[in-house]
Amino acid sequence: MEAMASHLPQPSVEPSNINSCVKILAESADLKSVPSNFSFIHDPTCSNSDSIPIIDFSLLISSNPDQRSKVIQELGKACNEWGFFVLVNHGIPETLVKAIVDRCTEFFDLPEEKRKYETSSGPVKHSTGSILNSSKEGIFQWRDFIHTVVHPEYHFPDKPQNLREILYEYAENSRSVSKKLLQLLSTTMGLEEGFMDETRNLNSSFQIFAANCYPPCPQPDKTIGTLPHTDPRLLTFLIHNGVAGLQIEHNGKWFSTNSPQNSILVNVADQLEIFSNGKYKSAKHRAVVNEQTTRLSIVLFNGPASDSIVSPASQLIQRDGHPLYRPMKYIEYMKIRQKDRVVGYSSLDCVKILDS
Fold it and tell me: Is the bond leading into 160 cis (omega within 30 degrees of zero)?
């Protein structure tokens, strides 16, 4: 912490108050280089891709059985081959999407409000960087973020005005879309549509809201917004303020994403890979920063109920002849995830069954 503080151009920032440093650093006219604690050299090689599947939600719920069947097959293929897809015509009002982005942008401009949650042990937390351990040294990512539990209990920051109502409505809408996608994905595996509902108790699903602020950086190739990782839940929904920055790994190569306005970028997360017994892939992804513009991303992590057992579906184990993952309570899986977040480590490693 002290080493990092020596790089800070603002004398009002104390070493113990590192949680508010990234935005302050980025706004300082004296900042010419990335502080050493944020230094992370990565391969910038990345391709642009227009091949990321686009799924039309309105066709998934169409009354036309042929049309619906075709898009359901495309949904399964997207989860199998990419672990990512762009969801369009999802039914969440564009005005609501814009409102949640605007309110979250305002939140990051409220220093007193952010400070309330920096040392919080409650469900609402604001922090910087997400320290990841690597040989006992901290690596800080170039971002400020807030996250809060929004289901089965609902928690929210007090400000800005109307955030409570807007976030609640957005979370409710997103959870409904997520539940329908998971029901349809059950059918792509040859299961009953309600199978995942029952075994993962989706009515009590554990849903986390997060907003990430990636300020401009003078050396974007010397740090990273979010390190490569997979998400530990079932499905992740992401929207942003129009500034690109999310990259996904596909067949060993990195691709930039470019989701159109009012679409949702959806990715398969660990619990869906486990449930499918490896059929659907939890896709590795990362966020990069740029030199000119602040990027804001809004993320909803949709998980199973906290007390549910995460394991491959029994019918899929019978079909495949053996399970690829051992059973574990979801809450225990998350504890492992939070305890030892090491660069390059995947939480899936703790439940994979290795070949004898």
Answer: yes
Q: Please tell me the predicted confidence (pLDDT) of residue 138.
A: 64
The pLDDT value recorded for residue 16 is: 35
* Alpha-carbon span 337 to 283, nearest angstrom: 16
pLDDT digits (tens, 9 = 90+) for 23-67: 878 888 788 898 888 888 887 778 887 789 999 999 999 999 999
Closest CA to 323 of 356, 353, 348: 353
Its sign, for the CA torsion 291, 299, 185, 206, is positive
* 190 half-sphere exposure, CB direction, 13 A CA radius: 11
The beta strands (E) that lie in the chain are given as 47-48, 54-56, 84-88, 124-128, 132-134, 137-139, 144-151, 207-214, 226-229, 235-240, 246-250, 253-256, 264-268, 285-287, 295-302, 309-310, 328-329
pLDDT at 343: 56
CA neighbor of 208 nearest in space, from 277, 293, 147, 265 = 147
| Beta bridge pairs of residue 297 | 212, 240
Nearest alpha-carbon partner for 56 in 35, 33, 87, 82: 87
Burial class of residue 282, CB neighbours in 10 A (0-12, 13-18, 19+): buried
The pLDDT of residue 15 is 32
| pLDDT given at position 112 | 86
Distances in Å between the alpha carbon of 81 and those of 77, 113, 196, 251, 260? Answer: 6, 42, 21, 9, 21
More confident residue, 223 or 24: 223
Helix (H, G, I), strand (E, B) or coil at 135: coil
CA–CA distance, 271 with 235 (Å, rounded to integer): 8
Exposed, middle or buried by CB within 10 Å (0-12, 13-18, 19+), for 320? Answer: middle
Residue recorded with tokens 């997520």: 178
Nearest CA-CA partner of 36 in 61, 6, 79, 16: 6
